[in-house]
Design goal:
Elements: H1 3-6, H2 12-20, E1 25-29, H3 33-42, E2 46-49, H4 53-56, H5 68-81, E3 86-90, H6 100-114, E4 118-120, H7 128-136, E5 141-146, H8 152-155, H9 165-181, E6 185-189, H10 193-202, E7 207-210, E8 218-221, H11 223-226, H12 244-260
Helix pairs in contact: 3-5, 5-6, 6-7, 9-10
Bound molecules: 3-methyl-2-oxobutanoic acid.
C-alpha cells in the first residue's frame, strides 16, 4: 500500500461533520506546487486557489485581471501537490456573473483541467442562477459574502462590510439562499464578529471567516500574508505567523555576499 492510500482525503462531507462536532476548519490559500505541498503536508483542511493570485502572484492591485486560464494553471499546479486537503478554485471575475451557462462552462473547465474538488464564487441572490446551474452538474460550490473583492469598483473601498442593519440582513438572506441552493460552505470576509456568529449559528453548512471574528466554523488567510511574505498589507484581521520576507532577503543577501567574495561554490560543491 502506498503512503498516499493511508491519507484520508478531506471531503465536503467531512467538513460538515467537523462543524457538527465543533472542530474548527483551517483553510489557507496556495497557488503553486511547492507551497501547496508544504501546506498540505502541514495538515491544513482546505486549500483555496484564490483569485488573490492576481495580487500575490501577478502583482495586480485588484483581483479583477486574473483570467480563467491563469486560475486553471494555478489550480492544476496545486492539485498535483495535494493528497489530503480539499482543493477549492476561485471562479475569476467575468466567468460566472450574469450568465449561468458561462458559469457552468467555466466551472466544468476548472474541474476537468485542474482536477480540483470544487469552485468558489462571490455573491448571493445576484449569482444564484449561476450557483444552481453549476450545482446541477454535480460540482460542489463554496459561496463568498461580505467583502467581495471582485466588486471593489462598486464599493470603492476594502472597509468592513455589513455594519449597517440593511446590509447585514441582506447578507444573512444571501447566506441562507446559498445554503438552500446546496453550497457546501460559505466564506465570510471582513464583517463584524457578531454577524459572523449569527450566520454560523443560522446555517448548517460550515462558515469560514477571514476577518469575520472567532465564532465562525473555520478561518482562512492568504498564505503570503500569514507567512509575512507580503509586507504592505496589514489589515486588523491578519495575524503574521512568520516574517519570511526578512528571512528570504537575509538568505539572498548571504548568497550575494558569498558569490561576490568567491566563497560559493567551494570544493565540495564543485565537480
Ligand atoms: O482569493 C482569495 O484569497 C480569497 C480569500 C481571501 C478568501 O477569496
Amino acid at each position: 500500500m502506498s503512503v498516499h492510500n493511508e491519507i484520508k482525503k478531506v471531503t465536503t462531507h467531512r467538513l460538515s461533520e467537523m462543524k457538527l462536532r465543533g472542530e474548527k476548519i483551517a483553510m489557507l490559500t496556495s497557488y503553486d506546487f511547492s507551497m501547496a505541498k508544504l501546506v498540505d503536508e502541514a495538515g491544513v483542511d482546505v486549500i483555496l486557489v484564490g483569485d488573490s493570485a492576481s495580487n500575490v502572484m501577478s502583482g495586480f492591485e485588484t483581483t479583477i485581471p486574473v483570467t480563467l486560464d491563469q486560475m486553471i494553471y494555478h489550480g492544476a499546479s496545486v492539485v498535483r501537490a495535494v493528497h489530503r486537503a480539499l482543493v477549492v478554485v476561485d471562479l475569476p471575475f467575468g466567468t460566472y456573473q450574469g450568465n449561468s451557462r458561462n458559469a457552468l462552462d467555466s466551472s466544468i473547465r476548472i474541474m476537468k483541467e485542474t482536477a480540483a474538488d470544487s469552485v468558489k464564487l462571490e455573491g448571493g441572490v445576484e449569482v444564484i442562477d449561476s450557483v444552481n446551474r453549476i450545482l446541477s452538474a454535480g460540482i460542489p460550490v463554496m459561496g463568498h459574502l461580505g467583502l467581495m473583492p471582485q466588486s471593489i469598483h462598486k464599493f470603492g473601498t476594502y472597509t468592513v462590510r455589513a455594519k449597517e442593519e440593511e446590509e447585514a440582513e441582506k447578507l444573512i438572506n444571501d447566506a441562507k439562499l446559498l445554503e438552500e441552493a446546496g453550497c457546501f460552505a460559505i466564506v465570510l470576509e471582513k464583517i463584524p464578529a457578531d454577524l459572523g456568529k449569527n450566520v454560523a449559528q443560522e446555517l448548517k453548512i460550515p462558515v469560514i471567516g477571514i476577518g469575520a471574528g472567532p465564532y465562525v466554523d473555520g478561518q482562512v488567510l492568504v498564505i503570503h500574508d500569514m507567512l509575512g511574505i507580503t509586507q504592505q498589507f496589514s489589515p486588523r484581521f491578519l495575524r503574521r505567523y512568520h516574517n519570511l520576507a526578512a528571512e528570504i532577503k537575509g538568505a539572498v543577501g548571504n548568497y550575494i555576499e558569498d558569490v561576490k567574495a568567491e566563497n560559493f561554490p567551494n570544493e565540495k560543491e564543485s565537480y
